[in-house]
Amino acid sequence: MDPKFNLATEEYLLRNSDEDVFFLYINSPSIIVGKHQNTLAEINLDFVQASDIAVHRRLSGGGTVYHDEGNLNFCFILNGEKGKLVDFAKHTQPIIKALKEYNIAAELGKRHDILIEGKKVSGNASHVYKNRVMHHGTLLFNSNLDVLNQALKTNPLAIKHKAVKSVRSEVTNISNYLTGESNFKIFSAHIFSYLLKHFSNSISYHLNSQEQAIILKLADEKYNSWEWNYGYSPTYEVKKRIRTESNLRIENHFQVEKGIIQQIHIKSQNNFYDSYISFLTKLLIGAKHDPNHINNKLNTINKLPHPHLSIEKTLKLFF
Q1: Domain ends where: 176, 205, 231?
Q2: What is the pTM of this model?
Q3: Chain-centroid distance, C-alpha 319
């Protein structure tokens, strides 16, 4: 249930195996952003941090999704002909058929998602490596949709960027459409059983200790790194505005490239803050656009005079 391990497993099997593979997995609460997305533009940072929700970038493109113990993930890694590897209709067909066998009337949507009565229960994405394609997706069975909606609730005006943006859709749980008795364990077993029939020549494969060690290393060095999960985001600009305890307005317009703050332009209504703003600008140009990193830097100057502008308030100028 470790999202970084499961994402690393996908990459390992895609790049280091020549077999067709499928597997199912479950992640603990986490947000998984697409390869070409701006992470901070896709998440509700305050809520995610307060809720201790992990954030990871995946290898495939597409939009951001939320995972938890009520969501089943599927992954197909297949060999094929170059130019014909990405085929959402083909790769979602086994899942849609498995759902229909479970008396669920599911269909493929226009955005490559799986829908029930027009509501999304599965997001899908693909990634090509040489003559192989990885296709993976979600299956919301009884996921916590309140947390999902809060975690992915963003302010579209705050960050200006050219990264791939998620298209928000109305989501629902598969369990809402079941009439008979079922639970997540039974549902997961059904999906796996159907896939074994669909890929009738399948044999089980177990990762050996050497493979697991390689995957763990990849999970730690790549999928657990700030550089991949946040720093890989395309160049973006942010505009933030705060009011101090004395009700003065301060605005910040800054640019970020590869996760690093490159330019800062802070303006205030009163020159009372000029010296602090000047020092702040010099301190944070070249810093990671990361709340923990900036907080640590600000704590090194907490003895400098800046009345009515606490470290917590200063952080609001950047997040």
Answers
A1: 231
A2: 0.91
A3: 18
